[in-house]
Amino acid sequence: MDANDGFRELDRQECLDLLATVPVGRIVYTRQALPAVLPVTFSLDRDDAVLVRTSASSGLVGAIAGAVVAFEADAVDATAHSGWSVVVLGSAGLVTDPAEHARLLRSGPRSWAPAPREVFVRITPELVTGREFVGGRTLYGVHLPS
């Protein structure tokens, strides 16, 4: 924990464990040379890749296929002044193998907005970082008022 900000750095496994507890995150990517952020449902695959299920005709698919993207998910408890945030940086690609696609239809993420033709985007985690904040504590022992 940094004495100045009260956040604790999370290791890779802690980050992946926390990601597995929430169903929604955000993909950060470039659209027409500008930053874009899109909330998505997701799950983690057995190799810790982030999987997103989306419409094959989505503008997201064309914008991120083969690109390096960021993916972020978090959870916050405003009453307890606590929470965490995890960021995954990695290459995004479409799942094109028919057997893999069939497996993900059975076990992959479910879309909250189903489409007639869906694809899976895999983000391979090259860098995984995270931070946790718990109840206003710092190394100085200062506690924020509730």
Count helical runs: 3
Helix content: 10-25%
For the termini, the CA-CA separation is: 21 Å
Question: Unreliable runs, pLDDT <50, ≥5 residues?
Answer: none
Task: Write the element-wise H/E pattern from the N-terminal end onward.
Answer: EHEEEEHEEHE
Overall body shape:
globular
Class by alpha and beta content: alpha+beta
Strand content: over 45%
Secondary structure: number of strands: 8
The chain-level mean pLDDT equals: 88
Major beta-sheet overview: 8 strands, antiparallel
Rg estimate, integer Å: 17 Å
Could you give a quick summary of the protein structure above?
The protein has 146 residues and is an alpha+beta fold. The chain has helices at 12-19, 59-64, 98-107, and strands at 7-10, 24-31, 34-41, 43-44, 50-55, 68-77, 82-94, 118-133.
Tell me what you see in this structure.
- There is one protein chain.
- The protein is 16% helix and 46% strand.
- The chain contains three helices and eight strands, in the order E-H-E-E-E-E-H-E-E-H-E.
- The protein has helices spanning 12-19, 59-64, 98-107; strands at 7-10, 24-31, 34-41, 43-44, 50-55, 68-77, 82-94, 118-133.
- Strands 1, 2, 3, 4, 5, 6, 7 and 8 form an eight-stranded antiparallel sheet that branches.
- It is globular and about 45 Å long.
- The two termini are 21 Å apart.
- The relative contact order is 0.26.
List keywords for this structure.
146 residues, alpha+beta, 8-stranded antiparallel beta sheet, 3 helices, 8 strands
Secondary structure layout:
Elements: E1 7-10, H1 12-19, E2 24-31, E3 34-41, E4 43-44, E5 50-55, H2 59-64, E6 68-77, E7 82-94, H3 98-107, E8 118-133
